[in-house]
Amino acid sequence: MRRRTILLGLGAATGTGAALGTGAFSTASADRQVNVSVADDANSFLSLIPGEENGQFTDDSGDALVIDISGDDGLGVGVDTEYTFDDIVEVTNNSQDPTFVWTTIGSAAFNDDQLTLYTNNPETPLSDANAVELGAGESVSVGLYLDTTGIESDEYAPTLTIEAADDDPNGEDPDEEPAPPTETIPSVQLDSVSSLLDANQEPLTDESIIPIQAEPPAVNSDEDGNDDAVSYPDDVDIPVVAVDGSVVGVTGPFVATDTNFFEFGNEEFLLNLYDQLLGGTGTVLHDESHGQFYTVAPNDGDDFQAFGEYAETNSYVYEVTDNIEADLSGADAVVITSPSNGFTESELTTLSGFVDGGGIVFLHDQSDFNNFDATDNLNEIATELDVDFRFNDDQVLDDQNNTGAPFVPTTANFNTEAFPELFVDRDGLGVELDLSETYEVDVTDVADGDTVDIVFENGTVDTVRIVGIDTPETGDTTERLQEYEGIDDGPALKSEGDDATNYAVNELAGETVTLSFDEGEGLRGNFGRLLGFLELPDGSVYNEQVIEAGEARVYDSGLSQHDAYWDLEQDARASGEGIWEIADQAATDERRDDPVDELFFPEPVAVSGPEEPVASEDGESLVAVDPDANVAAVGGPLIEESFEAGEGGPGIRAYGVFPFLTNVIDYVSDATGPVIVDGGHGQFAADFAVSAEDAAYYLRYLEGQAPGDEAFIDLEGVVDLASDPGPDPVDHIDSRVVSSDGDESDGTSCGGSS
């Protein structure tokens, strides 16, 4: 590296000059004065001559180039004043090779931004971050910027050093091994979150306090219907985390135990934030004194147990408080999740004093779905603490970036420029799972007949949705009667749900079981829960046992065991076991059986065949039948239940799709027996296909078509069409319904009539 040192003798409000030596200086280090050795200019790597625009302030007639900015009165520069002198010096590269040129300052009186050399913009110093590359013989014009704000009248001798090197000082040293790239967390999961607003209850756009935003396709919605959500414009990314000084706002629980910690970096981000604000250690209190739902103790995954233990393994104390005012004095931080009960004035004052004394506050809300949020109570706290963010009474939805449902978005929209340290990858929670492996786990809690909490050998806590089955809902959760054939008594089905829970408790609670997976289902479902089989110590599989006992129905997905499980369900039905004791399919009333006047074809595609009985208004054929081949082609998923009004769709009750499809089946088939719906080719959970699980309303229609003294018409799901679809041989089925497989076809939404 080569250096040219500029020695400036400055006097605030006194006559003085600025002397720049024209030789190639070999050293430069001084606060007030510097002694330098001057080399022969002929041997200089860099030369300094007066610039064209402000060269009149320089004098190179002597042994040194002198900059004199003292003025005619000799009083020098004034105090509390900014000066700029464009093109005051020209720097030339006298070497035979390209070189990078930049400057540094050495001064006890002037800050780095008060005395600089620059090339084009006085606000952009010619520093190592903005080095200029000069080819052999090339020159650059340099200006002088001086700010005497806060400088007292005196004489000063700061030094400016022009440095030169073959390599960019802002790049990597080629002689050194490159530093390994810093790995960052891949993304975070946003389970039922709201958005943030500014202090004026308007969209928050101050990126200096926003570390995480939802991905651009996300929108926010007023899910509780209270018309109190502030909408975000389409061109503004929605903030979901804010950090304003020592107060943090997070729009969801974020680190609840049922979070998929292995795939997402929620816990790593939050612990990085703890480290930044708390310095790597401290006592964190989790408030449970205001009616909070999210506890530290296990709560079916809706808790902070796993994260609390994670924090404690990383040098923090994480414990519950049920008295904020009494306990804050001994804490370094407090976590407040959605408080159903507001804080008293005394508590708010205590909290404000805690922050003023250096305490850290983490505020967590959640979406307004079912009014589970506590937005007003949290905003009272935010107002008391005078932070620049507030919580919005809404829900963030993302149809493109999610874990299977729009209300569980994922995002990697990170503000790494302002908060780089918060996204550094570190050892987190979770277990790397392999679909083909088995794992010994302990059942720690039974939520109901099909959901349990487990702990792995390394202490990782997770939730298992027992795959292939469905048991009736319990508690306040509404059950969809359409899913349970022959059952129309809601309270009775609720009671059966309690029985299923008791059955699961007896079989699973406290047991060490073997967890395994189905390759057709994957590791996790829509809500981030593991989808698994649980093998009991005696070798039996709970998934099978609960079906045999009649406490569960088969879930019509793409499960490889589906067809065998269906046989077990049929046996349980025949013997009236469990929930099937209250089922009577033959008694289901007739419904939706009016003459067909008009049809609705969602997401239609044109079809063709020997006979084409239905066309759209513009003449495109929507149904084709070949009676000789016993085949019909229908250009739309007519019976997909998501189009039902009760499922949030537009509603298809007014259209005769059920009797029409049944008549089509009867037209092309001479057999009697159940309607078989193919689910073995990726149809389950595909928006553009139909599996038996997606056709519950049509199933109830078929039940209503059967006279009480005859065998009912049934609808069955099947994964393997070539083997044994349910208890009846494939030769005896009335019809097979095969919809699109996992490759989505194009289509345009429209309606059609017969």
TrEMBL record:
Pfam family, one: SNase
Stretch list, region Disordered: 163-189, 206-231, 723-754
GO molecular function, one term: nuclease activity
TNase-like domain sequence ranges: 437-582
Gene3D superfamilies: 2.40.50.90
Biased composition annotated in UniProt, kind: Acidic residues: 164-178
Transmembrane feature ranges: none
Superkingdom of source: Archaea
InterPro entries from the UniProt entry: DUF1102, SNase_OB-fold_sf, Staphylococal_nuclease_OB-fold, Thermonucl_AS
Entry protein name: Nuclease
